[in-house]
Every structure is written in C-alpha cells, then in structure tokens.
Amino acid sequence: VLCVSQDFDFFYFVQLWPGSFCDTKQSCCYPKTGKPESDFSIHGLWPNYKDGSYPSNCDPDSGFDLSEISDLTTRMQGSWPSLACPSSDNMKFWSHEWNKHGTCSESVLNQHEYFEAALNLQKKVDLLQILKSAGIQPNGRFYSLKSIEEAIEEATGHTPGIQCNVDRSGNSQLYQIYQCVDVSGSNIIECPVLPRRSCKSTIEFPSFRGQTTDLSL
Ligand code: 5GP
Ligand code: 5GP
Ligand code: 5GP
C-alpha cells in the first residue's frame, strides 16, 4: 500500500450568499446558464494549514479537464455558479478553483473526486434551511452574528466561520460561510483556525431576487 503524505491539514468549505456578492458597489453578472437560485452557492473547497496559512497552485501540470467531470457539470451549474462580471459559462471559475486550490489536495482527491466532494458537502448541510428554521431569513433584515453562528453550530455540531462584506449603503452583511472539513473531504470538523473576523455584531441578510441587468437599486 502506498502511503501518500498530505500536504495540508484540513479544508475550508466556503459557500457564498449571492445576494451579498451582487449588492456591492462592484455588482455582479449572472452566468450564461441562467440566474442562480436563491440559495447559498459554492465558492470553493480550500486546503489549509492549521496555522491559518494555505498552499496554492500546487501543480501547474495538472490542468482543469472538463471531460473528467462531465457527469457533474449539470449539478455544478446549479450549485457552483460564477457571478463575476462579465457573464461566463462558469468554466473559468471552476478551473481557477481547481488550479489554485484543488491541485493542492491531489494527493487525496483527483479532479472528479474534488468537485464531487464539494457538491456532496453542500447537499449534506442545507445552510439556508438551517438559518430559516432559526428565524433567520434573507429578507434584508439585520440579525446578530451570534444568532447565525449558534444556529449553524446547533445544527451541525461545529462552529462556522462567518465572513462579511459591505453593501452599497455601507451595511455589514452575511457574505460567506466557512465550514471545516477533514482531509478526506467528506466530514465536517471543528475548525482548527477560523478566518479573521470581518463582521459587525449585527449584520444584514439581504434578499436575492431575480432581476434584470440593472442592479443599481
Ligand atoms: P479574499 O481576500 O477575497 O478573502 O480571498 C481571496 C482568495 O484568497 C479566495 O478566493 C481564496 O482563493 C483565497 N483565500 C482567502 N482566504 C483563504 C484562506 O483562509 N484559506 C485558503 N485556502 N484560501 C484563502
Ligand atoms: P478565489 O481566488 O477567491 O478562490 O476565487 C475568486 C476568483 O474567482 C476571482 O478571481 C474571481 O474573479 C473569480 N470568480 C469568478 N466567478 C466568481 C464568483 O462567482 N464568486 C467569486 N467569489 N469569485 C469568482
Ligand atoms: P479575483 O481577483 O480573485 O478575481 O477577485 C478579487 C475580489 O473581487 C474577490 O473577492 C472576488 O470575489 C471579487 N470579485 C471579482 N469579480 C467580481 C464581480 O464581478 N462582482 C463582485 N461583486 N465581486 C467580484
């Protein structure tokens, strides 16, 4: 049996709230595959060290190969859309995530396993449902950071990392949720280190609704 060393300690599984990506000064663009659902979407599955640092771009020879994940792309369009401008077919985002992060966990997960692991993690924990059950809805209201952290901790058994950004009016808002995952890519664990705090104690949970290209409202 080959013993392959792991060159990282855990993964961050990071999901973003599309409403908070889109209502910033920078705005957003829906992918050519259509307007994303009103749900958290995957940003990435990122190998990390427990001191908070992380490896990146670990294997320039391992290019993103769409043919290896052809059975996953329909699910990925729904769960892992790219919202950056200009509108894309998501491929640039996925290949960026593979090249920057995925290649650093190749000792454990090949390309197919890597993307499938992220899809399965998202399915395993329905963050929006967890928050809604705790009365925390994407309706533009403000909620205490603590209530958000506690709802997720109670439902999953582990404290999440919450990252905020700022909307056009300067409000601190729920942007990304970090969960920690063991090196196999399948089990949520307690975070060895949480991302730097970026939220006010009370934060907005903006709505995300369908709209035209004019996002300036
Ligand atoms: P930002 O500066 O927008 O938070 O992050 C920019 C990029 O740096 C992210 O998209 C991600 O690729 C990488 N990054 C930021 N923080 C972390 C981290 O704590 N761990 C890992 N592995 N990557 C990170
Ligand atoms: P990171 O390096 O932070 O993992 O990934 C962010 C990079 O992917 C940025 O260069 C960004 O332009 C690109 N990107 C493409 N689509 C998206 C998206 O929907 N969300 C985010 N956060 N980045 C995206
Ligand atoms: P990157 O250089 O990694 O493309 O992006 C740098 C930062 O800008 C990241 O935090 C990424 O999420 C953000 N970003 C990139 N493109 C867009 C965009 O079209 N809209 C918004 N709101 N943020 C973006």
From TrEMBL:
<feature type="active site">
    <location>
        <position position="101"/>
    </location>
</feature>
<keyword id="KW-1015">Disulfide bond</keyword>
<protein>
    <submittedName>
        <fullName>Uncharacterized protein</fullName>
    </submittedName>
</protein>
<dbReference type="InterPro" id="IPR018188">
    <property type="entry name" value="RNase_T2_His_AS_1"/>
</dbReference>
<dbReference type="GO" id="GO:0016787">
    <property type="term" value="F:hydrolase activity"/>
</dbReference>
<dbReference type="Pfam" id="PF00445">
    <property type="entry name" value="Ribonuclease_T2"/>
</dbReference>
<keyword id="KW-0456">Lyase</keyword>
<feature type="active site">
    <location>
        <position position="97"/>
    </location>
</feature>
<feature type="active site">
    <location>
        <position position="43"/>
    </location>
</feature>
<keyword id="KW-0732">Signal</keyword>
<keyword id="KW-0255">Endonuclease</keyword>
<comment type="similarity">
    <text>Belongs to the RNase T2 family.</text>
</comment>
<dbReference type="InterPro" id="IPR036430">
    <property type="entry name" value="RNase_T2-like_sf"/>
</dbReference>
<dbReference type="GO" id="GO:0033897">
    <property type="term" value="F:ribonuclease T2 activity"/>
</dbReference>
<dbReference type="InterPro" id="IPR033130">
    <property type="entry name" value="RNase_T2_His_AS_2"/>
</dbReference>
<dbReference type="GO" id="GO:0005576">
    <property type="term" value="C:extracellular region"/>
</dbReference>
<dbReference type="GO" id="GO:0003723">
    <property type="term" value="F:RNA binding"/>
</dbReference>
<dbReference type="InterPro" id="IPR001568">
    <property type="entry name" value="RNase_T2-like"/>
</dbReference>
<keyword id="KW-0540">Nuclease</keyword>
<dbReference type="InterPro" id="IPR033697">
    <property type="entry name" value="Ribonuclease_T2_eukaryotic"/>
</dbReference>
<dbReference type="GO" id="GO:0006401">
    <property type="term" value="P:RNA catabolic process"/>
</dbReference>
<keyword id="KW-0378">Hydrolase</keyword>
